[in-house]
Amino acid sequence: MKLEAKQLQCVRGDRELFSGLSFDLESKQLMILEGRNGSGKTTLLRTLCGLYSPDEGQVLWNGQSIKKQDEAFRRELLYLGHLNGIKADLTVLENLRINSLLAGDAVSDDTLMKALDTIGLFAFEDFPSSQLSQGQKRRVALARLLVSQASLWVLDEPFVALDVAAVELLQSIIARHVDNGGMVILTTHQEVPLTSGEIKRFSLNEFEENQGETDNA
Q1: Which terminal CB of the chain, N or C, has fewer other CB atoms within 10 Å?
Q2: What are the contacts of 169-172 at 24+ separation with CB within 8 A?
Q3: pLDDT one-digit tens code per residue, 156-166
Q4: Angle, helix 92-102 to helix 134-147, in steps of 10 degrees
Q5: HSE value, Cβ hemisphere, 13 Å, CA-based, for 64
Q6: Mean pLDDT for the chain?
């Protein structure tokens, strides 16, 4: 499996966030996307997921444009953004069940309950999500990782609102996914020891600076 960004350009309003951006990611690789606030990290992640269309360039999955294999690509993708993507009027278990169904994953309630237990939500399955703390809501969203069959995880600040124990647990979940042949792209403002598999770092700060040097040459 291989994800490729080819000469991507993204413009928001009258501002160019990046252009000529290229990289690739393969099985058993993890990429940490770095950049200052406003550098375009979230825009890039959403572009890689097909949620934004680049102004130039394309995103390839196994050598073909993601636009030409929309359903096949989405089955292999799990995107977790800043928002937790849970519905306040549903219980914890109902939210996890619906997210699994929408992802096309056939997962038993026993497996879902085990995931909630592992993520630290034992006995919370029947709680309305509206009654959860921010950290607990984040855990509901992260439980999706434990039941997902997707090979590519794209995670935007996944460690936000988590306590130390939850951060350590999430690190181990990500490491296990990479060890099992998965791929992960993530952003984080927290320095966490993610050491499983091959780790790549891509800095939008450095990319922006290099582009500026090229423009001024």
Answers
A1: C
A2: 169/118, 169/119, 169/120, 170/142, 170/145
A3: 999 888 888 99
A4: 40
A5: 8
A6: 90
